[in-house]
Design goal:
CATH class of the largest domain: Alpha Beta
CATH superfamily of the largest domain: Creatinase/methionine aminopeptidase superfamily
Helix content: 25-40%
CATH topology of the largest domain: Creatine Amidinohydrolase
Number of strands: 21
Number of domains: 2
Shape: globular
């Protein structure tokens, strides 16, 4: 949580954290500005032991005020004049940051975060450090203070994510009803113009529903049918027609409009009826979900549950990624991942020996076992989001039934 930032900075001997860029595509900037709609380059400076300050362009001053942070105007430094003085855009940016940090009395070990092209970041940070006495640039590659702070959510964040889950479930239900509204001819779903209903048609209907629910789909949903359902991250072929008895993996992971919190849920459907081998596989994946959930314990290593899922599937005769890291059939991915302002975050539920993440109060994570057999023309995955409260109780944030067969009026 944000309340942990000062402690984390002290543990890493960081005197200040600087987050820069726009809010769009910049989860840490969104986090620090509380979702303020900033479309121009802005800077958040968080000195150790002091409140964060937001520096922005004057034209965005009212949006910046909605962040709740103390704001300062970058215009006071006259950025264009600084570029002319330095003789380059890079030099002007360095002077701008020097003046901002000086005004905020920031120096020493300063860590930098945000979104910027890697080459530009390298050039800027090297020049800033070389030309600023007393400044040491700190870069964190993994397990940054923000990774660790965002690993846990407070009650308001959890409630926002619960609400995103409700709306995501509503979008999935709308998709099912949209599919059911079509007639069937020769086991193929048909539109009013007598053309087949396709994967692309369904995705467009889902996007319309998400828009009405004030959600967005920045990562692109998965709606994969038949063989494509057997490849975990196949998004599906837009031109594929929907046919009865063909398994569909529908993985929906929208976020709040404007760059907020994600939800992540997956269901596997078969329209009208299911082939016996698909039903058997579905039942096994559902069993894995139930057994993992029943074994959840607060403060337990996330890797424990990946190993449990592998145990379950291996006992049922399936290949797993633990037995063969290059496996492309059977259980071929980790059990889950954290979810928040990024679709993949902490805690990790992989089986890696270096994974030390634990399921602690305030964490939000997916449980998504699956079995995949592209050579047999199908795959199955089921996914819910879970969280742990302060008392160590686990709660599901995905309220949606798990039923393989979607009834169709043939």
């Amino acid at each position: 949580m944000k309340a942990d930032l000062d402690r984390l900075m002290a543990e890493r001997d960081i005197d200040a954290a600087v987050v820069s860029g726009t809010v769009t595509g910049n989860p840490i900037m969104y986090y620090m500005t509380n979702g303020a709609r900033l479309h121009l380059h802005s800077v958040v400076v968080k000195p150790a032991g002091r409140p964060a300050v937001l520096a922005c362009r004057p034209m965005e001053r009212e949006e910046a005020a909605k962040s709740g942070l103390t704001t300062v105007s970058l215009a006071q430094f006259d950025p264009l004049r600084l570029q002319e003085e330095a003789g380059s855009v890079l030099g002007g940016m360095v002077l701008l940051y020097q003046k901002l940090l000086e005004q905020l009395e920031v120096g020493g070990r300063v860590a930098f975060y945000g979104e910027l092209d890697q080459g530009k970041s390298f050039s800027f940070l090297n020049e800033l450090q070389a030309s600023t006495p007393g400044l040491t640039v700190v870069g964190e590659y993994e397990d940054s203070i923000f990774d660790l702070a965002q690993l846990t959510k407070d009650r308001s964040e959890i409630e926002r994510m619960r609400e995103v889950g409700r709306r995501t479930a509503a979008a999935m239900q709308a998709a099912i009803e949209f599919v059911q509204s079509h007639r069937v001819k020769n086991e193929t779903l048909i539109k009013d113009d007598s053309c087949p209903l396709t994967v692309g048609d369904v995705k467009r209907a889902v996007l319309r529903k998400l828009f009405g629910l004030e959600l967005e789909d920045p990562e692109g949903m998965i709606f994969a049918i038949g063989r494509d359902a057997g490849v975990p991250h196949s998004a599906g072929n837009a031109d594929d027609p929907l046919r009865l008895g063909e398994p569909i993996v529908f993985d929906l992971f929208p976020r709040e409009a404007g760059g907020g919190y994600f939800h992540d849920m997956t269901r596997t459907f078969s329209l009208g009826y299911a082939r016996p081998e698909v039903q058997e596989t579905y039942d096994q994946v559902k069993l894995c979900c139930e057994r993992v959930v029943s074994a959840l314990e607060v403060d337990q290593l996330g890797s424990t549950y990946q190993n449990l899922a592998c145990d379950i599937f291996e006992e049922l005769g399936h290949e797993t990624i633990r037995a063969d890291p290059q496996a492309e059939s059977g259980y071929v991915h980790s059990l889950g991942h954290g979810v928040g302002l990024e679709i993949h975050s902490r805690p990790r539920l992989s089986g890696s020996e270096i994974n030390t993440d634990r399921l602690v109060p305030g964490s939000v994570f997916s449980i998504e076992p699956g079995l995949y057999y592209p050579e047999k023309g199908y795959g199955v995955r089921l996914e819910d989001l879970w969280t742990v409260d302060e008392s160590g109780q686990f709660h599901c944030l995905t309220e949606f039934p798990k039923e393989l067969v979607v009834p169709m009026d043939a």
